[in-house]
Write a structure and sequence with these properties.
The protein has about 90 residues and is α/β, with parallel strands linked by helices. It is built from four helices and four strands.
């Protein structure tokens, strides 16, 4: 089943104070009906991992799909459910 709601981040929102807590609340509210996309083109891999790690754990517990956009390395380390790769991503 394809989720009806996809939560997609960007660099600005990832850098906002309290983001992980707000994202956790959104995941908890939507549960398995939500797909979470960790996306931050200008955010470092380390920061994506630090932000994504607790969110990935929560998504797994809730049965919510967790994807990483454009960063296959981060997706593999976080054991994401998938990676969204665009035309400028790895071939």
């Amino acid at each position: 089943m394809i989720s009806r709601l996809h939560l997609v981040t960007d660099d600005r929102i990832l850098a906002s104070p309290g983001f992980v807590e707000r994202a956790s609340d959104a995941l908890a509210t939507g549960g398995a009906r939500v797909t979470f996309h960790l996306r931050g083109p200008a955010t470092s891999g380390r920061e994506l991992w630090e932000i994504g790690s607790p969110l990935r754990s929560l998504a797994r517990a809730l049965g919510a799909p967790f994807l990483v956009n454009d960063r296959l390395d981060v997706a593999l380390v976080l054991e994401a459910d998938g990676a969204h790769l665009g035309s400028a991503s790895l071939s």
